[in-house]
Amino acid sequence: MVDVVEAAYRAAVRSPTTWVAEVLAVAAPLLDRGADVVAYEYDTTRPMRQWLSPPVGNPELAASVVAAFADTPPGINHDVHRRLGPVTILSEILQAPLATRTDLAPHARPRAMADMLGVNATDPSGRGTYFCAPSRRVIRRNGGGIQRWEQVAAHIAAAGRLRHVLARPGLPEAILSPDGKVLHAASAAQSSLPMLQRAARASERARVERTDLDTLAAWSALVDGRWSLVDEIERDGRRILLAHANPAAVGDPRRLTRMERVVAGYVAMGHSNKLIGYELGVAPSTVALHLQGATRKLGVRSRVELVDRVLLISHGRSQQFEIGGELVNAIVSPESGSSARIATLTRAELAVARLAARGRSSAYIARERRVSVRTIANQLASIYAKLAIGTRSELAHLLAASPPTK
């Protein structure tokens, strides 16, 4: 897996126009589950039908992936790319055999596909690179292997951004030797020099030891939440490390510091504090402090509420409503396809969904609807399945994003 990381950075420096293909060439043998692998770049800030760039890899599989994306419910597409973390298993998302899905089975059947492993290299900007590895068998989650692919995905995301950083004119902010000696440092890098020095020494030790587990653990995707270290070979054969500013892009929830915005953005993507620390090159305790700051400033009490608030502020639009004869301004999230998803609910399910989104308990809803609690539980399960969500918080967010229906 270290070879994949090195290929991502090497291609970012030397061949940015063929970057995806070069990373895929190294990653595919490790990801392949017997049905080939393709990769594509995507941009979720566009309308959903324009998210995907043409996939790279096996042409038949690439065409199948594009067709399957078009037929996949928008909620699942959104969650796979924006909410479920860097490593996904399709059978876990669907909670049903792929063959039973009338929307996806026609695309899976010609390749005898039973499942798919996805590696999502992205950041809170909504842009990234996705690797699709179909499998002819149902995939079982492997803790150690999943963690290493999470780390690889963090590096691929950083390398993807680095292509654009290096395309702009300018010099590196710092230059270090592999043993951590500072050869040059601009004023912007001064406060990060101790961490850059430690990172340089750690990467050199990892390079010598050359085991996937140790190397990936020691080699964080960024240094001090901002810097990428890039290998350079000088004319005399001496190796040096160049530090380029390469922070993760993120939306702008007001009142938060840059690091609070970045941490909150990764939390909204379903990343753990430990993984966020790895992605930013800071300690998990530092991540927790920034998370506490974001939670306090945004006036929320839980991680779930923080996710909702970040999504609304970062991606929402201002809209005016009339409530009780008064005009009220609110931020509404433009969730792709939310109206179409809600339209799949029956009248009874929609009534239950609205009550649940207001925080009413199942017992309360059952009394209001004059049915059993078990009936409400079954209706909520059907609602969650149709909308491809898993919590009442997500339900409230989705209903807020959609105009009134039925």
Per CATH, which architecture of the largest domain? Answer: 2-Layer Sandwich
Full CATH superfamily name of the largest domain? Transcription factor LuxR-like, autoinducer-binding domain
Give the strand order, joined by hyphens, for the main sheet: 2-1-5-4-3
Radius of gyration: 23 Å
Number of strands: 11
The major sheet is characterized as: 5 strands, antiparallel
**How many structural units, i.e. domains?**
4
Can you tell me the overall shape?
A: globular
Low-pLDDT stretches are 317-324, 327-331
What does this structure look like?
- With about 400 residues, this protein is an alpha+beta fold.
- It folds into 4 domains: about 160 residues, Beta-Lactamase, CATH 3.30.450.80; about 80 residues, no CATH class; about 55 residues, Arc Repressor Mutant, subunit A (Orthogonal Bundle), CATH 1.10.10; about 80 residues, Rossmann fold.
- The chain is about 50% helix and about 15% strand.
- It is built from 18 helices and 11 strands.
- The chain has a 5-stranded antiparallel sheet.
- Helix 8 packs antiparallel against helix 9, helix 10 packs across helix 13 and helix 11 crosses helix 12.
- About 5% of the residues have low confidence.
Any key phrases for this structure?
single chain; 406 residues; alpha+beta; Arc Repressor Mutant, subunit A; 5-stranded antiparallel sheet; 16% strand
Write the layout of secondary structure elements.
Blueprint: H1 2-14, H2 19-31, E1 38-43, E2 56-57, H3 59-71, H4 74-82, E3 87-89, H5 90-94, H6 105-108, E4 115-122, E5 127-135, H7 143-167, E6 174-176, E7 182-185, H8 193-209, H9 212-218, E8 227-233, E9 239-245, H10 258-268, H11 273-280, H12 284-297, H13 303-315, E10 317-323, E11 326-332, H14 338-342, H15 347-357, H16 362-369, H17 373-387, H18 392-400
Antiparallel strand pairs: 1-2, 1-5, 3-4, 4-5, 6-7, 6-9, 8-9, 10-11
